[in-house]
Every structure is written in structure tokens, then in C-alpha cells.
Design a protein that fits this description.
heterotrimer; A mainly alpha (about 325); B alpha/beta (about 260); C alpha/beta (about 300); A: about 0% strand; globular; C: about 300 residues
Chain lengths: ~325, ~260, ~300
């Protein structure tokens, strides 16, 4: 990707982050925002900017970066332009974990952990089902196994919710709609570690993914250990997705859409794609969070809904290009 | 250079062996061609070489060492393979695609060096695809794609080139150009192992022919030794004669109309 | 039957008394209040800017005379009518913390649910005294009214409010004690079919008004039930809004119930559904008259 494009997407992210800090339910003038960010002026403004908006923007950026990068890597490794991080059963498994935790009235701190554990369990199950179905690491088998595990998880959630009392249903539904409203600095710290490690692994595998994208036979002929690289991508992608889900619930569409946007911007090899998808993904989710906060004040829209709504026009533009 | 010794392969959940005791050798400086009817196991040989199917019996050695031992990446620096079918779901540029041929030499962290860039440039020149380098591979015609894939294998370097049906979509001119390129590479010292349907072209260019039939070697030797009417008729299950083409002096296969229709 | 209903009334009164006094006196002894999420608050000077994100507590604040000090409510806090002039700060579940902070409150009252723990934490971290309450049963009404009185300094008004409600309830209980108690079914929702169960204050109202909730044996406030089970329980009376009455009378499925065939459908549009406030005294009275037409004579 040309340097000018990198600068462009970098600037877009910076602009989105600024918007995230400057906009919200409370109207603050730019000088107010500036002073509050520095810790000066009205303490209420400082609290809002530094303790509420800033962690939200950072968490949203991390979620978007993780999902975008994972989506780009998974699309390459499965040679499928419709692959996305939730396809390996991550979203279904995380939802089952979280819903169970809510239904069992677990303390709120445990719910993200339960979601995380559920996501990883579902991915492990997907890979096992794929292995049992035959074909060592064949991408199509893995994708189908992911769909199967996901459907099973959805069924389990429906059963759990059908007999639950309204507060459990409400809590579960809210979690499934995605939100960074409860962002805190400890959360940001933990997620940044996950995202950094996950993206580093994916970028290290990027060249191998380029080759893997050509087909498993060709990749073998170029010396790529197809099973090992695929597994590496699935595990790193699953960790990224599970981490973001634990932090913010289900934020759909980002992992699917962002790699396409980055390709439109000119990225061709997976090293640029994954890095670019991280930046563009972060921008998208930060923007979506701003919209979620200012669209219908004083209510907040669910983040997952906004990412889908914002993503649709982009996707349509892409489809028109293809036609 | 590449030696198959009594190789047997069984695909999962199949009764019949796809390959049942095939031995052949592709040596440096020669074009070795594997021919045979559909389903005779030709592509399975290539898959076995790159480790995509497990061997039920026998072994494959590259320069004396077992192909399965040692790293696949190291093997890929010495043996370049072009499979029968390949499709890129993403619009990677032709130049970047050819450069992927250098992947076995680069590994994870090394950046491409002058040697790598030179290999890519040479491959593009030798396969005559300069006009295509800026196009995305998803916009190439069947023939253009095939030549680009060949360029990638040439860029890979190494001592052996293994190709599965490299001329399927090529017109007569491009087809000849590919075979002449392969001849030249063989003369320069490479071991070229070729799987092809094009019996007549193979008869003109190959130094050594291996005829497969239902997973076993039905005949092997020089084109003149292998291209015998009765043998080929039996293997291909179709009436045909083998003549000697006066223009080029190589054995030429002529299929006849089927007997039942007269 | 007389003895049973008297015992029930006595037991109810005792339960109310026992339930509401104990935690209050313990807390009063320490000077600190413990809210329904288990957090404690040391009440300081009387707050002058209260944000109440809970329809029941908003209504209560107005009832004890603190209404003029309420500067923020949820979208659903519409009672009493005066509350509508208070700025709407958004949802009560997962509140908009920024909007709350922007109102510069010195006391925030949240709805006590696990969903709201993060918001409570953030508000306290920002230095805003925050409590969370849930008012599900009549005992909660008494407890929380007194707690709010302690928080806002309107303890006398709170006590008067509680006393008048308790007196009204006692009157209704006494008036219906000697009368036959019909079995009552009170549907909350048609699809899925939800009934008022034993966990709801409306169940308590039914009992005080001299009825017997056919689903009083279920502990949840609004359990999902099956129609077959409803037919088996065969209630004497069904409490329904005017619109639902028409629907039930016309629906062959509902006509399988004796109460519908005998047209013993009682309309209670005036009764609230969100939580027990000081209007339950009047509500109990109205319900008693509906269940016992003989009281009108």
C-alpha cells in the first residue's frame, strides 16, 4: 500500500479518536475538551473526558483493531472473502458462556471471563469437529464445523433464555448487542496486551498466509506447513476475537468488512492487510461508538448494531465495484 | 534428483490404491514426462511429493535424502512445484505473486534481497509475462494465469521443476513456448518432471517417458520405446495408431474413430 | 375461613413489621445506610440535586416532599405528573453516566441490578454519593421510603407516608377478612403467557384485598405459565384491562375458562405495574371493591 494511503488511514484513526473524546451526551467546547484532557478546569469535565470517554475510545479502538486484523488473517487462511473472526464458533461460544454466567447470577466481573472461556471452548470444539470430519486442516471443513458449533451454541442460548427471568434475558441481550460503555482502565490494559500479542503473531504469519491463500497444494509446494500455519492463524484469531468479546460483547461485521475496505485502499499482501485492517478496524469501531452515543441522546445505541448499520453502505459500495 | 521408489498411496476411505508401487526417477538435465489416462494417478504423484497425501508404502527421495524428513521449506528451495489447479481468491498483483515464489528462501523475517529480486525479474523475462506484471491475478485469462504460475515456479529457483498439466489453457504458440522453455531449463541443468496429457508434444520434448495405468507403471523409457500402438491402445482403451511425424521426426499418436461406430 | 383469613392478616402485618424494621435500625445504629447492592453510604448533608433513575424511587421522592430537588429521572419515570418536568437522562438500566454527571448531582439513586454495578462504581469513583434500590414488595416500599427519608432529611414526611399506607392496607384487610375469598388470576402478558406470581407485590395486594392468587404458590414475580395449567387451576376471577376483556370474551380458547364464560372479568386500568408506591393503599381498596361487590352496599 502506498505511503500516502497509510498516512490517510492513520489520520482517519486520529480524527476518530478525537471525535470520541470531544463528543458525547454533554456538549463540550474544544477548549473545554483540551483542558479536561490535561486534567485542568471543571472536575466534572475532567472526569467525563478522562475516566469515561478516553477509556471508551481506547477500548473501542482495541476491539476494532483486534477484530479487523483477525478478520483479514482468517479470510486469507481460509481463502474465503466472507470469513470473519466469529465464524469459528467464537461468538456462539462466548454468548453461551456469558448467558450462563448471567443466568447463574455470577458477579459482573466474572461475566467477561465466562465469555472468554466459552469462546475458546467453542473454537477448540470447532477444530476437533473439523479434525473428526476428515481433511487435515482443510479450510472448508473448518468453516463448516464453525457454523455447526455456532448453531448449536445459539440453540443452547435460546433454551437458556426461554425459561429465564426478565432481568437475565435483558442482561444477556445487552451483552450480545455489544457495548464499550463500561470501559475502564484495567480493561484497556488487559485488552491491549491481548491485541498486541495477537496481532504480532498474525503479522509474523502474514507471508505464510499469502502463500496459504493460493491453495493448500500450492502452499505445500512452496514449503508452507499448511496444518501448522492454519492452526496458528485460527488460534491467534480466536484469542483476538475472544478477548474483544470478553471486553465489549458481540461487535459484528467489523471482522468481515474491514479487510475488504483495506483491499479497496490498495493493500495486497497480508502484512499490509493485517496491519491496515487493525487501523481501519479501530477507526470504524471508535466512530461507531461515537454514533452510538450521540445518535439518540440520552439513550445509547448498541455498538454491534451501529457497526452493522455503518458497515452496510460500505459493503454495498464494494459490491457495486465488483459487479 | 527426485526418485520415487515403490510408492503406494491410498486416499482415505477408498478401497483401491491410487498408486500401487510406482518407481521412477527424474534426473538433472532431462525432461521426464509422466503420462497416462485420467485417474491413472499422475496428479497423486505430485501430491505425494509435496506431502499432501501420506504414503502407504515406499519412499520419495530428493538427492538421496527422504523428502518427508527435513523441513518442507528447505525442500521447496530445491524443488518447485506447479499444481494442476490453482485459484487465488484475492486480487494479488502478478509481480507480488511471482515474488511469492521466493517464500521458501525468505522464511518469516528476512526481507527480499537483491538475489531474490533478480530471480523474480529473470523469471518474468524468461516466461515472457512482462506485459502482465501490473495486473491483479484475478483478471488474467486462463492462459495468462498459467504462464504466471510457471513464472512463480521459475522464480523459486532450485534444481527441480515439477509441473502438473502446465499447458492446459495455452494456445499452440504459448504451448510451444512453454515446452521450449522447459527444454532450455533442462539443458541448463534442472530436473524437469512433467505430467501432461499432450502425448505428441511430450514425445517431441521429453527425454524419458513414464506411462501410468491404474496406479502402476505400464511402460517407461524413451518416447520411441514407450509410444507403441498396442501398449497405448490398451492403456487408453481407445483405438489409435502411432506414426512417425515426418515434419519433426518424433512419434505421433493418431486416435481413430471408435470401432463400434465404424 | 374466618380464622384462616384473620391469621393471614396477622401474619401479614407481622411480616411487614419484622421485615421493614430490622435492617433500618441496624443501619441507623451505625449511621450508615446499606443499599440493595450491598454498598454502604454515609448520609451527609441533605442533598439538593438528586438524580433518581428508578420510577418507583422517583415517585417516592415526590411523595415525601423531595420532588423539587430531583434534577434527573429516567425516560420511564412519569409519575407523578410533576415528574415529567424533570429532565430525562435516559435509561435506568445501564444509565448514561455522562448525562448523570452533567446534571451535577449530589445524590444518585439507581435501580439495584447487576447491570448497574459498573455505573455505580464509576459514579462513586467520580465522587458522587450513589445508592441503588429495588422496590419489589410492600415491605420494600416501607423500607426504601424510610431510607429515602433518611437520605434527604425528610424523615417525618417519610414516616407519615408509610403510616398512612399501612393504615389503609390494614383497613382493607379488616374489611375483607370475613368475606369469601375468590381465587384470582392476573395475567401480565399474553404472549408469552405471564401471570402475576407469588414474588410480586400485586400478589400481596390480592391477598390484602381478600382474594387468593391462583399462582401465589410460584415464587417468581411474573412466571411464564401454560394455558393448560391455567384451566386446571380454574380461577374464579380474572383481572384484565378493558381491551383484554373484549379479547378474552371473544376468544374460544379463553372461553374454556369458567371465569370468562361467567363473565367474571375485573378491569383494573388504574392500578400501577412498576412497583409499590404510596398509591397501593388506594389500589388495595379499589381491588377489594372489585373482588367483593358486596362491599359497595
Amino acid at each position: 500500500m502506498r505511503l500516502s494511503r497509510w498516512l490517510l488511514i492513520g489520520l482517519a484513526l486520529a480524527a476518530a479518536a478525537l471525535a470520541g473524546i470531544a463528543f458525547g451526551t454533554l456538549r463540550l467546547s474544544p477548549p473545554d475538551v483540551w483542558h479536561a484532557a490535561l486534567g485542568q478546569g471543571d472536575p466534572m469535565h475532567v472526569t467525563i473526558v478522562r475516566s469515561l470517554r478516553l477509556p471508551r475510545v481506547l477500548l473501542a479502538a482495541l476491539v476494532g483493531a483486534g477484530l479487523g486484523a483477525a478478520g483479514a488473517a482468517l479470510q486469507g487462511a481460509t481463502r474465503n472473502a466472507l470469513a470473519e473472526p466469529y465464524l469459528l464458533g467464537v461468538s456462539g461460544g462466548a454468548a453461551v458462556g456469558a448467558v450462563l454466567a448471567v443466568a447463574l447470577h455470577a458477579p459482573p466481573a466474572l461475566i467477561p471471563l465466562a465469555g472468554f472461556a466459552g469462546a475458546l471452548a467453542a473454537v477448540a470444539l470447532t477444530l476437533l469437529v473439523a479434525r473428526a470430519g476428515g481433511g487435515h486442516g482443510d479450510a472448508r471443513t473448518v468453516l463448516m464445523a464453525g457454523v455447526v458449533v455456532g448453531s448449536f451454541a445459539n440453540a443452547a442460548i435460546m433454551v437458556a433464555l426461554s425459561n429465564a427471568d426478565p432481568s437475565v434475558v435483558r442482561g444477556a441481550l445487552w451483552w450480545m448487542m455489544g457495548s464499550v460503555a463500561d470501559a475502564s482502565w484495567p480493561q484497556v490494559r488487559v485488552l491491549s496486551l491481548f491485541v498486541a500479542v495477537g496481532i504480532a503473531i498474525l503479522i509474523a504469519l502474514a507471508r505464510a498466509i499469502d502463500v496459504l491463500a493460493l491453495g493448500e497444494d500450492t502452499a505445500a509446494g512452496l514449503g508452507v506447513d499448511v496444518a501448522r500455519v492454519s492452526l496458528g492463524v485460527y488460534v491467534a484469531g480466536a484469542l483476538l476475537a475472544a478477548g474483544t468479546v470478553a471486553a465489549a460483547g458481540l461487535v459484528g461485521f467489523v471482522g468481515l468488512l474491514v479487510p475488504h475496505l483495506v483491499r479497496l485502499a490498495g493493500a495486497r499482501t497480508h502484512r499490509g492487510l493485517i496491519a491496515g485492517a487493525a487501523i481501519v478496524g479501530a477507526t470504524l469501531v471508535v466512530l461507531a461508538d461515537v454514533i452510538a452515543r450521540v445518535a439518540l441522546p440520552p439513550s445509547e445505541l448498541p455498538l454491534g448494531a451501529v457497526t452493522a448499520l455503518v458497515g452496510v453502505p460500505f459493503f454495498l459500495a464494494r459490491l457495486r465495484r465488483l459487479a | 534428483m527426485i526418485a520415487f521408489r515403490d510408492v503406494a498411496v491410498r486416499y482415505p476411505r477408498r478401497e483401491v490404491l491410487a498408486l500401487d508401487g510406482v518407481s521412477l526417477e527424474a534426473t538433472r538435465g532431462r525432461i521426464t514426462a509422466v503420462v497416462g489416462p485420467n485417474g491413472s494417478g499422475k496428479s497423486t504423484l505430485v501430491r505425494a511429493l509435496v506431502g499432501r497425501v501420506p504414503l502407504a508404502r515406499g519412499g520419495i527421495a530428493v538427492d538421496g535424502a527422504d523428502a518427508g524428513a527435513g523441513s518442507r521449506r528447505e525442500l521447496a528451495t530445491r524443488v518447485a512445484v506447479v499444481t494442476q489447479r490453482e485459484e487465488s481468491p484475492f486480487p494479488i498483483g502478478v509481480h507480488d505473486y511471482v515474488a511469492l515464489g521466493r517464500h521458501p528462501h525468505l522464511g518469516v523475517w528476512r526481507a527480499p534481497s537483491a538475489v531474490d529480486r533478480a530471480a523474480v525479474a529473470r523469471a518474468i523475462a524468461v516466461t515472457e509475462i512482462e506485459a502482465l506484471t501490473d495486473r491483479p491475478v484475478t483478471e488474467l485469462s486462463g492462459g495468462e494465469w498459467q504462464r504466471v504460475r510457471l513464472a512463480r515456479a521459475v522464480a523459486q529457483g532450485g534444481d527441480a521443476l515439477v509441473l502438473d498439466e502446465p499447458t492446459t489453457f495455452l494456445d499452440v504458440g504459448h504451448e510451444m513456448a512453454v515446452f521450449e522453455l522447459l527444454s532450455r531449463l533442462a539443458r541448463e541443468g534442472q530436473a524437469v518432471l512433467l505430467v501432461s496429457h499432450q502425448l505428441n508434444l511430450v514425445a517431441r520434448f521429453a527425454d524419458h517417458l513414464v506411462l501410468l495405468h491404474r496406479g502402476t507403471v505400464a511402460a517407461h523409457g524413451s518416447p520411441a520405446e514407450v509410444m507403441l500402438g498396442p501398449v497405448l491402445e490398451r492403456v487408453y482403451d481407445w483405438p489409435l495408431v502411432v506414426t512417425r511425424d515426418p515434419a519433426v521426426g518424433a512419434p505421433s499418436l493418431v486416435p481413430l474413430r471408435s470401432r463400434s461406430r465404424g | 375461613m374466618l380464622r384462616a383469613s384473620q391469621a393471614l392478616a396477622l401474619a401479614g402485618a407481622l411480616a411487614l413489621a419484622a421485615g421493614c424494621d430490622a435492617p433500618h435500625s441496624r443501619a441507623a445504629a451505625r449511621g450508615a445506610l446499606t443499599d440493595d447492592l450491598g454498598d454502604t453510604l454515609q448520609p451527609s448533608a441533605a442533598p439538593r440535586r438528586i438524580v433518581s433513575l428508578n420510577p418507583t424511587t422517583t415517585e417516592m421522592l415526590f411523595a415525601i416532599g423531595a420532588g423539587s430537588r430531583v434534577v434527573g429521572r429516567t425516560t420511564y419515570d412519569v409519575l407523578p405528573a410533576a415528574a415529567r418536568t424533570v429532565p430525562d437522562l435516559g435509561p435506568g438500566i445501564r444509565p448514561n453516566v455522562e448525562a448523570v454527571l452533567a446534571a451535577r448531582p449530589d445524590l444518585v439513586i439507581l435501580y439495584a441490578s447487576n447491570d448497574n454495578r459498573p455505573a455505580a462504581r464509576t459514579l462513586r469513583a467520580a465522587g458522587v454519593p450513589t445508592v441503588a434500590y429495588r422496590v419489589d414488595r410492600i415491605a420494600d416500599f416501607v423500607r426504601v421510603t424510610r431510607a429515602l427519608g433518611a437520605l434527604t432529611g425528610d424523615t417525618a414526611a417519610a414516616r407519615r407516608d408509610v403510616d398512612s399506607v399501612q393504615a389503609a392496607l390494614a383497613r382493607v384487610r379488616a374489611a375483607t377478612a370475613a368475606l369469601p375469598h375468590p381465587t384470582v388470576f392476573w395475567p401480565l402478558f399474553d404472549a408469552p403467557l405471564l401471570a402475576i406470581g407469588g414474588g410480586s407485590f400485586l400478589d400481596e395486594l390480592i391477598t390484602i384485598a381478600g382474594g387468593r392468587n391462583v399462582y401465589g404458590d410460584l415464587p417468581q414475580p411474573s412466571p411464564a405459565i401454560t394455558f393448560e395449567d391455567l384451566i386446571r387451576r380454574d380461577p374464579d376471577v380474572i383481572i384484565a384491562s378493558a381491551a383484554s376483556r373484549q379479547r378474552y370474551l371473544a376468544d374460544p380458547k379463553w372461553r374454556a375458562l369458567r371465569a370468562v364464560r361467567e363473565s367474571r372479568l375485573v378491569s383494573v386500568d388504574s392500578l400501577l405495574a412498576t412497583g409499590p408506591t404510596d398509591r397501593i393503599g388506594a389500589s388495595a381498596d379499589a381491588l377489594a371493591r372489585l373482588l367483593h361487590p358486596e362491599l359497595a352496599k
